[in-house]
């Protein structure tokens, strides 16, 4: 009788995922990111709560996209604002509006918006967000975006283990630099970051619904981190950074 | 039982410490992987002559690893000598061709010649594929009698091309390892190709097996297909004796 050898009964619960999207990409196949489907995926993957941003805001219209995720606020969804780096003047206004709504974090999509790290917009928008007390969730290559984001509290969402060393040396000088675990899927990446800059810099991110949420959970489950550290990566660190007390 | 058909032994140039054979075995233990077929990173990235021989010595130390003899398509004379000298050890069960590190895409004349060499020795060839290159590998399989090839990474982002490639010939297998784990990728491939052509590969110890294992886990395969992916198809392809 056949048996599925691929099992994992040890996946840790995720109390706060820092990398979830609703909406769709127009330039690629994949899920349409309907909010109900996304929240169902979160539940199926043991993710109790997620910082959710809108692709509508990232790709088309900031204001209506941000309002879309604001309307989803609840026990499962922590709304994250999006700023459009192609429109730094509009981003100035949106920072004020989002901060006034009590939003705790904004997300930058430089790759999707075809923005380079040395564009004036990036440094300016990051400064305005930091001055407003907002945490920055940043896409893009950490080797290039560390520079304009210096001084801010940042969660780099695209840190690949190929670039782990660059993240570590940048984070040594920048206490506000943190990274998602999504692409830290080499055998010792989590352990290396914990050793060099501390486990408090690591935050679970899945990029549901576009990536397999099971992968970073599994990597975390089979890491050399202890139970308290795993719980911190799976949500405790994110709650601390975002100032959530509940 | 799980067999990893795409693994490496040796150090990498990134900020990671994964080069010791004890790391291979520890990483395999994390995921219940019983056996891995490895290539030497030195052979893949730099020099097959020294890398293949270092790995031959390493393979004497454990029965949980089998070897790919790495071929640089630009050094076929070296490859013929390595095959002649190292195959008698009985520890090499296939050949590895990395198309990027050698600047030799699957459609290049030198890689075609390397694949002919693999076929002449009746050895499966694990070939690094990316984007559209599984289609070029499938064309080589169609043209070279007896060649059995594995499309490493099943084309990575080009997995839809890998599906087309696997369905176009009868001697091309796919394995899923890729650090970017697009949702539904493995499930879509598993639903679209002959279940006998699916293998499990991780790219360890460059990539932690969590990436490939998690992708297969998420696909929630029926038990019979899961066993095929986990080891049965690999055992058949490499003609391994079943314990």
Automatic annotation (TrEMBL), chain B:
Entry-linked Gene3D superfamilies: Metal-dependent hydrolases
InterPro entries named in the record: ACMSD, Amidohydro-rel, Metal_Hydrolase
Amidohydrolase-related domain sequence ranges: 3-240
Membrane-spanning intervals of the chain: none
UniProt entry keywords in alphabetical sequence: Hydrolase, Lyase
PANTHER family from the UniProt entry: 2-AMINO-3-CARBOXYLMUCONATE-6-SEMIALDEHYDE DECARBOXYLASE
Protein name per the record: Metal-dependent hydrolase
Organism for this UniProt entry: Micromonospora globbae
């Amino acid at each position: 009788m056949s048996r599925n050898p691929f099992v994992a009964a040890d996946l840790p619960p995720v109390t706060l995922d820092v990398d979830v999207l609703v909406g769709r990409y127009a330039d690629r196949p994949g899920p349409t990111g309907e909010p109900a489907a996304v929240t169902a995926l979160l539940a199926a993957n043991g993710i109790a709560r997620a910082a959710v941003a809108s692709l509508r805001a990232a790709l088309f219209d900031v204001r209506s996209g941000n309002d879309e995720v604001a309307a989803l606020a609840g026990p499962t969804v922590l709304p994250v604002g999006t700023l459009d780096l192609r429109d730094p003047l509009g981003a100035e206004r949106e920072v004020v509006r989002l901060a006034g709504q009590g939003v705790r974090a904004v997300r930058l999509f430089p790759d999707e918006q075809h923005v380079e790290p040395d564009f004036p917009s990036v440094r300016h928008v990051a400064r305005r967000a930091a001055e407003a007390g907002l945490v920055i969730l940043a896409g893009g290559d950490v080797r290039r975006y560390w520079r304009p984001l210096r001084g801010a509290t940042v969660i780099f969402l695209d840190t690949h283990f190929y670039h782990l060393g660059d993240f570590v040396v940048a984070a040594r000088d920048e206490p506000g630099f943190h990274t998602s675990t999504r692409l830290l899927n080499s055998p010792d990446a989590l352990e290396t970051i914990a050793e060099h800059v501390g486990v408090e810099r690591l935050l679970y991110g899945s990029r549901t619904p576009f990536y397999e949420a099971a992968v970073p959970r599994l990597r975390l489950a089979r890491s050399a981190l202890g139970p308290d550290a795993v719980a911190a990566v799976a949500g405790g660190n994110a709650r601390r950074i975002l100032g959530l007390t509940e | 039982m799980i067999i990893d058909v795409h693994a490496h032994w040796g150090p990498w140039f990134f900020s990671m410490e994964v080069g010791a054979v004890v790391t291979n075995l520890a990483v395999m233990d994390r995921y219940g992987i019983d056996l891995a077929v490895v290539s030497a990173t030195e052979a893949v990235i730099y020099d097959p002559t020294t890398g293949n021989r270092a790995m031959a010595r390493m393979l004497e130390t454990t029965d949980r690893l089998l070897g790919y003899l790495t071929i640089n398509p630009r050094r076929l004379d070296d490859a013929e000598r390595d095959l002649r000298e190292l195959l008698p050890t009985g520890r090499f069960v296939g050949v590895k061709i990395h198309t990027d590190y050698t600047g030799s895409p699957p459609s290049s004349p030198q890689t075609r010649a390397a694949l002919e060499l693999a076929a002449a020795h009746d050895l499966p060839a694990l070939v690094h594929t990316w984007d559209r290159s599984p289609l070029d590998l499938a064309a080589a399989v169609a043209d070279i009698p007896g060649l059995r090839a594995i499309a490493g990474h099943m084309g990575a982002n080009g997995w839809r091309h890998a599906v087309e490639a696997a369905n176009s010939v009868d001697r091309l297998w796919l394995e899923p390892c890729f650090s970017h784990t697009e949702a539904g990728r493995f499930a879509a491939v598993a639903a679209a190709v002959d279940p006998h052509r699916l293998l499990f590969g991780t790219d360890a110890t460059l990539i932690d097996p969590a990436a490939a294992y998690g992708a297969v886990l998420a696909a929630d395969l029926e038990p019979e297909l899961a066993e095929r992916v986990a080891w049965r198809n690999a055992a058949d392809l490499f003609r391994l004796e079943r314990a």
